[in-house]
Amino acid sequence: MLLVKEGHLSELTELFERYHVKLFNFFRRLTLDKATSEDLTQNLFYRVIKYRQSYKPEQGTFQSWIYRMARNVHSDFARQSKRVPDRPGNRESNEEEEGEDLALQEDGFTEDHYIRLERAMARLEPDQREVITLKRFQGLKYEEIAMIRELTVPAIKVQVHRALKKLKELYFKEL
């Protein structure tokens, strides 16, 4: 990222290859819409180029910086979606899309498990869905999530705990 910041934009290719699937999945879990997630991922990388000078390694890792930027892209989209009622992000995803994810599925889980999980995730509050996505699906550390959300680590741990408790409750209601 330091090379990109200095104007070597071709170096962004490596960062894109390393992070685009994770970021797509982050957006996918927040918006529940594949096409919207693709658009948001693309918009995010445009912003990385546009705001590359704002990256400061002394303020945290590249990963926490790009997820903070991704969170802002999603917030802008959510605000815009509220003004335009028929945007894809405003509707529930259909069952055909629910099982889709660029990440590989692990052995031992059926498609039904993933569909139930997606339905339960969709019923969470957006903030709860975001912290679960960052912690469990994106694998970020509590410290990184705290930087992204501009909160303390203990506050993030409480939010994750409460969100997982709510997710568990919603998931088992699906049975």
Descriptors:
single chain; 175 residues; mainly alpha
By secondary-structure content and strand pairing, the structural class works out as mainly alpha
Helix content: 55-70%
Number of helices: 9
Task: State the domain count.
Answer: 1
Taken from the alpha-carbon principal axes, the silhouette is globular
How many strand elements?
0
Low-pLDDT parts are 85-106
Q: How far apart, in Å, are the first and last alpha carbons?
A: 46 Å
The biggest sheet, with number of strands, parallel, antiparallel or mixed sense and barrel status, is:
none
Strand content: under 5%
Provide mean pLDDT, rounded. 84
Could you outline the blueprint of secondary structure elements for this entry?
Elements: H1 2-5, H2 12-31, H3 34-50, H4 62-83, H5 95-98, H6 111-123, H7 126-137, H8 142-149, H9 153-173
Structural overview:
The structure is a single chain. It is globular, with a radius of gyration of 17 Å. The protein has one domain. It contains 9 helices and no strands. Helix 2 crosses helix 3. Helices cover 69% and strands 0% of the residues. The chain has 175 residues and is mainly α. Residues 85-106 have low confidence and may be disordered.
